[in-house]
Amino acid sequence: MKKQLILTFASLTLATGLFAQKPSWTSLFDGKTLNGWKRLAGTADYKVEDGAIVGTTVMGSGNSFLVTDKEYDNFILEMDVRIMDTTSNSGIQVRSHYDPAGHQGKGLVYGCQLEIDPSSRRWSGGIYDEGRRDWLYPVSLNPAAHDAFKVGQYNHVRIECLDHTMKTWINGTAIASLSDATDAKGFIGLQVHAISKAALAGEKVFFKNIRIQTTDLHSTVFPKGIYVVNTIPNTLTRDEKNSGWRLLFDGKTSNGWIGAYKKTFPEKGWEIKDGKISVLASEGKEGANGGDIVTPDEFRAFDLSFDFFLTPGANSGVKYFVTLEENNTGSAIGLEYQVLDDTLHPDAKLGRNGDRTMSSLYDLIPAKKQKRFIHPMGQWNTGRIIVYPNNHVEHYLNGIKVLEYERGSKEYKELVAISKYKKWHNFGEAPQGHLLLQDHGNFVSYRSIKVRELK
Predict the structure, then answer these.
(1) Closest Cα partner for 113 from 204, 193, 31?
(2) Which of 331, 268, 349, 278 is CA-nearest to residue 308?
């Protein structure tokens, strides 16, 4: 009887996974040699010292990479990384590729990289698209993670690449989450960054305890509230849903939008096609075709994210705290995240100090933008507006914060008093309002419009 009970208990525990095996890890570095690795692109030196791979900068080289002979699709990768100085820079490539003809015949490694950035910017753990799209997940999107990486000591790095999702951690702190379908597989690489000054030659970066798990993989849930960069149009990841995000445009219908001052979606002037909602051109006349569209719902404190695509010379905008009480002609009144071709549209040169340029708070506060973070015409840009419960407001462009202000503050009221909005009593200070996509008479498309209410 005892023997039967023991067998029964054993079978039950195995069935329930109580005695399930721990994840199976494979070492990618034997601690003694560089077997299984090869150098690509640059000429930086890679050696094994005291059980670590040591990469050393050299003058006259581009970015150098020590990459795996094998390619990997779905995996969890862990290792320990050390950089000794804030002037250094490195990274870990995943699902990456090599073009021997790239970089003017010097060879080009391209693909997603976990950034190792000990500079004052502190973007370690962010996701950079080496040799291709530039920054995908700057750590400005997760400012609480800026101090996760420690200079001068080993830092434990974890990267999960599962299906379309890449997530990163440093020393147990969740850093970046990216949903992107560009690369399904590729090699893993250890970067030694190029240097521009001879004084930086000889700087070292250390990698050790490099291991990978390729079976029995399970995605780790990110903490709620951390922004997810999702390049797959009109979708939400599990982590986004857990954080309370919802789509305001399903990519197929006008559900969730009506015309401003109307009860239904405009019969003309807007087009829904190929996963985009687009305002059609009408000789640049504001609100003269289909007119603005708004959400029936009103919002108090929120995080709003949206992709926008400008045609050359186009003008539009995303407005918030729109009450529709003014019943004015033209575009409805509200605080506006400017959507504009700064190069060709004349509005960029009007106003004060550039406060009518892309991602500015229109006619009130100019956006401070670096050119490298503005995607050119023909590419999608991502805008973001955060209104906190305390009325602190932030505008972002492609992951970079470009302005902030306090709605209703003395400084805010002073700006309104010298703007085109001075005639509207308590402009932009309503406790809640609609969200709006503007018809300014130019062809502009939107997609991946999503919102999360804040409390």
Answers:
(1) 193
(2) 278
Which 3 state secondary structure label does DSSP give 192? strand
Identify the architecture of domain 26-213 in CATH.
Sandwich (2.60)
- Close Cβ partners of 6 (under 8 Å, ≥ 6 residues apart): none
Residue with tokens 């973007």: 123
What's the average model confidence in pLDDT over 200-215? 96
Place of tokens 């109307």: 262
Give the model's pLDDT for residue 286.
Answer: 64
First CA to last CA distance, the chain:
59
Q: Which of 403, 444, 419 is nearest to 293 (CA)?
A: 444
- CA distances (Å), 210 to each of 98, 417, 447, in order? 22, 59, 39
Degrees, nearest 5: CA angle 246-299-265: 75
Rg (CA), the chain: 26
For residue 123, give the nearest of 95, 96, 97, 89 by alpha carbon: 89
The C-alpha angle 286, 289, 290, rounded to 5 degrees, equals 105
- Residue 209 CB-density burial (10 A; 0-12 exposed, 13-18 middle, 19+ buried): middle
Average pLDDT over residues 340-359: 95
pTM confidence score: 0.92
pLDDT attached to residue 2: 45
Encoded tokens for 276: 């985009």
| DSSP H or E stretch at residue 128 | strand 127-130
Contact, 191 vs 92, CB < 8 A?
A: yes
3-state secondary structure of 63: coil
Superfamily of domain 245-453: Exo-inulinase; domain 1 (2.60.120.560)
Number of Cβ within 10 Å of residue 231's Cβ equals 17
Name the residue with tokens 């445009």: 249
Matching fold, domains 26-213 and 245-453: yes
Helix (H, G, I), strand (E, B) or coil at 103: helix
Q: What is the three-class DSSP state of 18?
A: coil
Distance of alpha carbon 340 from alpha carbon 316, whole angstroms: 6
Residue ranges of the domains in the chain?
26-213, 245-453
The span from the CA of 5 to the CA of 2, in Å, is 5
Closest CA relative to residue 389, chosen from 371, 406, 370, 365? 406
Tell me which of 11-15, 144-148, 220-224, 314-318 is least confident: 11-15
